[in-house]
């Protein structure tokens, strides 16, 4: 790959990703409920897939295994999730979304959709389709990479 093209891509990716992530996290924290984008990811995963073990959440959200307990403790303290033992094997713990957590997740998801829609308004439908296809391809490749610690 051409190094100038790579540099250009990296700069655009960093500017876009960091800006969008920062805006979304600010929007969720300031307007809805104080939480990080990682905590939102945990709520999202639980809302979409139901009760999960902490190691499953770490893998699905990209949060390091050692951080998932700390992040989930904060969500438990806010009343958004609960921790319970597996009745069949008390060594296993499951995290579940509470009714309040579901409301906060839905409000956050709605606000994020409004923000993303406003960003995409500058693109033509065909450009959005190309963007989605490129992101899917990159995401699929990233998920198949073996990266230490993830």
Task: Give me a quick take on this structure.
With 150 residues, this protein is mostly helical. It has helices at 3-32, 37-49, 54-61, 65-77, 99-120, 125-144; strands at residues 81-86, 89-97. The protein has a single domain, classed as Arc Repressor Mutant, subunit A, CATH 1.10.10.
Structure description:
This protein has 150 residues and is mostly helical. It has one domain (3-121): Arc Repressor Mutant, subunit A (Orthogonal Bundle). The protein contains six helices and two strands; from the N terminus they run H-H-H-H-E-E-H-H. It has a two-stranded antiparallel sheet. A hairpin with a 2-residue loop joins strand 1 (81-86) and strand 2 (89-97). Helix 2 (37-49) packs across helix 5 (99-120) and helix 3 crosses helix 4. The mean pLDDT is 88.
How big is the Rg? 18 Å
Strand content: 5-15%
Helix/strand/pairing category = mainly alpha
CATH structural class: Mainly Alpha
Counted beta strands:
2
Mean pLDDT: 88
- The number of helical runs is 6
Helix content: over 70%
How many domains make up the 3D coordinates?
1
Distance between the termini: 26 Å
The biggest beta sheet is recorded as: 2 strands, antiparallel
Order of helices and strands: HHHHEEHH
CATH architecture: Orthogonal Bundle
Shape: globular
CATH topology: Arc Repressor Mutant, subunit A
Unreliable runs:
none
Strand order of the largest sheet: 1-2
**CATH-wise, what's the superfamily?**
Winged helix-like DNA-binding domain superfamily/Winged helix DNA-binding domain
């Amino acid at each position: 790959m051409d190094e100038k093209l790579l540099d250009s891509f990296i700069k655009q990716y960093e500017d876009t990703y960091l800006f969008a992530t920062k805006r979304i996290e600010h929007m969720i924290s300031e307007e809805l409920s104080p939480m990080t984008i990682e905590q939102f990811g945990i709520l999202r995963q639980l809302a979409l897939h139901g009760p999960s073990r902490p190691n499953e959440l770490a893998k699905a959200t990209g949060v390091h295994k050692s951080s998932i307990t700390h992040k989930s403790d904060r969500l438990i303290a806010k009343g958004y999730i609960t921790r319970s033992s597996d009745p069949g094997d008390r060594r296993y713990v499951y995290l579940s979304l509470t009714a309040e957590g579901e409301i906060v997740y839905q409000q956050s998801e709605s606000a994020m959709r409004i923000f993303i829609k406003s960003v995409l308004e500058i693109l033509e439908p065909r450009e959005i389709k190309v963007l989605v296809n490129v992101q899917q391809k990159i995401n699929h490749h990233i998920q198949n990479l073996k990266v230490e610690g993830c």
